[in-house]
Amino acid sequence: MLFGGIKMTWVYLIVAGIFEVVWATSMKLSNGFVNIFWDMITLLGMFLSFYFLVIATKHLPISIAYPVWTGIGAAGSIAAGVFLFRDQISGITWLFIVLLLVGIVGIKITSGH
């Protein structure tokens, strides 16, 4: 199965990472689980994130899938924090974010999957 030249397994993994960002962001917006709307979005995001990760790990080794999933979640959560919550990130931190993204791409390129 290919989707624009990318195996669907990788699409599922990327979707899982995006839903990780969704649940992390909505958890912040839930204000400590006191806002029922954001609480439900958080739980739905968690479920979908894990669901797509499970699908991806049917065909990808966990040693590849898990670091990519957490890397997408980490980088996406940083972006959400900066753009939605006005988090301040230092220049050196941005350097490490870029290195994180390079690592994710490197894992994909070298994984052979």
TrEMBL record:
SUPFAM superfamilies: Multidrug resistance efflux transporter EmrE. The keyword Membrane applies. GO terms for cellular component: plasma membrane. Keywords: Cell membrane, Membrane, Transmembrane, Transmembrane helix, Transport. The chain crosses the membrane at residues 9-26, 32-54, 66-85, 91-110. GO terms for molecular function: transmembrane transporter activity. It is found in: Cell membrane. Belongs to the drug/metabolite transporter (DMT) superfamily. Small multidrug resistance (SMR) (TC 2.A.7.1) family. This is Membrane transporter.
